[in-house]
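[[Sequence with tokens]]
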Amino acid sequence: MNEVDAVLDTSRYCDEPHLVVLVDGEPLDELLAQAVERDDLAGLVPTLGNALYEPTESQLAWSRIAASRQPTVAPLLICPDCGAFDCTVVVAEVRRTDAGVEWTRFGLDVSGGDRQIPRSTTDWFRASPAFRFPQADYERFLDRCRALEPWRPL
């Protein structure tokens, strides 16, 4: 099993502290950039903080990341400049199991322009890592995200 946490920190393109998702102690954007050999993923920010400007997009991100028994595509990381689903969006296939929550694969949404997730086309990363989190740890992670950076319109 993996560990998941959230902290306030800076990142490659954001000098101001913001929500950062850690998996096994490493920032998720950096882990993915290294795993799939795409430097352009480093510096993306989580959808669970204040990065999304639209309340409906934030609500959708939260509902998908909270996970259900059916696999769903959840937006996890976005461009810090655009703050919307119509730019760079890294998604994960997320599902809840008896043992916890799994992020089974990651990809880049390549539909372009459509603000709905999942959109029609996801370019799944071939070397995508998979993460499995114990249920109690995952719930603590979600609570920590809410506490560290509750959503508010900018």
Q: What stands out?
A: Residues 105 and 116 are 19 Å apart (CA to CA). The radius of gyration is 14 Å. Helices lie at 28-35, 55-66, 135-148.
